[in-house]
């Protein structure tokens, strides 16, 4: 069910509800465009619908305003790239949340995609969105992009700016911003992703590659692979100044590789393995200026090695319900409380392998972890 509470522009009395002779159709009741074409782009949609209240090209260099939802059906592919697009604005007026829902394929390259409020002539904001523990405050609606379960292709986003999408719709509502519940094998590479509600949320998908992105100033999590996400690579990203944890994989994630990322200045924590994350690796990451650096909670059979944690409240933490993890070769430096450099809850040291980790002072001199009461064979 699409959340379409109002439209920025009134519907034209001459709108055609469905253009049934083509693979691009428009439903006025839902204010939704459906694409079933093997290949289509925004110019194709504009040429077919011919209604500037729905899709309008604002400039000759490819700035578009979309004032409707868009559904890409199974087997269909939509291209949003520099052949005809510089910037796709998706209309929002504080009451409307127009999604792009992908059940086929979506290929985004070298463009900008954001929300846009024509009334304020600026990006749409959702400053009232809030998630605190198990309580949420439903935020001002904004457009969002979701690749749905059962999608027949990938949603590949490369060399683009994705910003000002998503809002707090409640747990499980699926309006987080950039969301993958399908689209195994998708590539998210070389993008600037900012001022979303969640920068990226995934659920039950595999084979995603998330690399070389700048992920910053998002309302809640930065990168949040979730329930059942597997065989994912998170590599060479810079993740900072997000409203919660920078990178977190939670609830039955497995075969996740988190490597060579720079993670800093997030509101909550740096990197977290959470709730039965298994058979995964965090390596060669630099985590700095976090309340807590790297956390392993209720997770097992993971490797955490050759990471550096700087100037943070804690270095690496392992909960008592985590086991068979191997933690080695990590460097903790300028930890605010040295006894938290390598923090193991009761019993965790015996259930996990910890060795060759180092705590350094501000001058680069090694501090004996044994003297901090830390087990580190």
Describe this structure in words.
The structure is a single chain. The chain has 377 residues and is mostly beta strands. It has a single domain (24-372), classed as Pectate Lyase C-like (3 Solenoid). It contains 2 helices and 41 strands. Strands 4-5-8-11-16-19-22-25-28-31-34-37-40-41 form a 14-stranded mixed β-sheet, covered by helices on one side. A 12-stranded parallel β-sheet has the order 3-7-10-15-18-21-24-27-30-33-36-39. A hairpin with a 2-residue loop joins strand 12 (130-132) and strand 13 (135-137). The longest helix has 8 residues, at 42-49.
Describe the structure concisely for a colleague.
The chain is mainly beta. The chain is elongated and about 75 Å long.
List keywords for this structure.
disordered N terminus; twelve-stranded parallel β-sheet; mainly beta; Pectate Lyase C-like; 14-stranded mixed β-sheet
Beta-sheet strand percentage?
Answer: 35-45%
Described by the principal axes of the CA atoms, the overall outline is elongated
The CATH architecture can be named as 3 Solenoid
Total domain modules = 1
Strand ordering within the main sheet: 4-5-8-11-16-19-22-25-28-31-34-37-40-41
Structural class: mainly beta
Rg from C-alpha positions?
A: 23 Å
């Amino acid at each position: 069910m699409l959340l379409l509470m109002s439209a920025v522009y009134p519907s034209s009395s001459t709108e055609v509800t469905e253009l049934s002779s083509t693979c691009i159709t428009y439903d006025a009741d839902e204010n939704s465009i459906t694409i079933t074409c093997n290949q289509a782009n925004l110019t194709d949609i504009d040429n077919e619908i011919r209604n500037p209240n729905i899709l309008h090209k604002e400039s000759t260099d490819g700035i578009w305003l979309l004032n409707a939802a868009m559904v890409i059906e199974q087997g269909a592919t939509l291209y949003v790239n520099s052949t005809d697009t510089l910037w796709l604005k998706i209309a929002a007026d504080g009451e409307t949340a127009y999604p792009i829902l992908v059940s086929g394929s979506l290929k985004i390259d070298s463009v900008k995609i954001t929300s846009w409020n024509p009334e304020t002539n600026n990006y749409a904001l959702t400053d009232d969105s809030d998630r605190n523990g198990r309580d949420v405050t439903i935020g001002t609606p904004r457009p969002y992009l979701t690749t749905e379960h059962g999608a027949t292709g990938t949603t590949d986003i490369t060399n683009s700016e994705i910003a000002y999408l998503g809002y707090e719709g409640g747990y499980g509502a699926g309006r987080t911003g950039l969301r993958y519940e399908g689209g195994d094998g998708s590539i998210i590479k070389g993008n600037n992703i900012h001022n979303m509600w969640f920068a990226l949320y995934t659920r039950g998908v595999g084979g995603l590659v998330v690399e070389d992105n700048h992920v910053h100033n998002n309302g809640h999590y930065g990168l949040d692979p979730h329930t059942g996400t597997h065989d994912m690579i998170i590599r060479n990203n810079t993740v900072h100044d997000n409203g919660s944890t920078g990178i977190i994989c939670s609830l039955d994630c497995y075969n996740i590789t988190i490597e060579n990322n720079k993670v800093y200045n997030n509101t909550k924590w740096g990197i977290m393995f959470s709730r039965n994350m298994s058979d995964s690796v965090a390596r060669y990451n630099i985590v700095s200026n976090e309340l807590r650096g790297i956390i392993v909670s209720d997770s097992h059979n993971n490797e955490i090695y050759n990471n550096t944690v700087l100037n943070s409240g804690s270095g690496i933490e392992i909960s008592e319900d985590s086991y068979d993890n191997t933690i080695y070769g990590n460097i903790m430096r300028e930890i605010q409380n040295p006894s938290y450099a390598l923090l193991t809850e009761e019993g965790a040291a015996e259930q996990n392998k910890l060795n060759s980790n180092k705590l350094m002072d501000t001058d680069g001199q090694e501090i004996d972890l044994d003297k901090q009461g830390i087990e580190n064979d």
